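User: I'm preparing a small set of examples for a lab meeting where we compare how different chains pack in three dimensions. I only have the primary sequence for this one, and I'd like the structure in token form so I can line it up with the others. Please keep the answer compact; I'll paste it straight into my notes.
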Amino acid sequence: MVPPASPKTPPASSAASAQAKKDSAVDQELIRDLAALLDETGLSEIEIERAGYEGDGGPYNLVQLKTIQEAITLTVFMIFTTLFFKTEKLAWNHLVGFGLIVLAVFVIFKKW
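Assistant: Understood. Below is the structure token output for the 112-residue chain.
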């Protein structure tokens, strides 16, 4: 028969569980703060695209707007992933791919 665990020393999984709950609470608080900030500005991606489209008086055509959208989305995703998902690490191929996206932005916006 196995003796019961001593109440003075919590199991290691309990400490890890407490830390995970603390990290989760911080992450949820930050997400709420970011959502509140977006709500305060009143801007959404659709409103920004409408304001920027050359057909509505803005400086960008549809291809340029789509490129901006994807570059911003991937940048935010990269930052979010590295901050909140500690198990996910950026590898060299991710950075090369992002570099190619930046190059694509340059090619699309360059006046040839």
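A couple of notes for your slides: The chain has one domain: 20-109. Helices lie at 12-41, 45-52, 62-84, 92-109.

User: Perfect, thanks.
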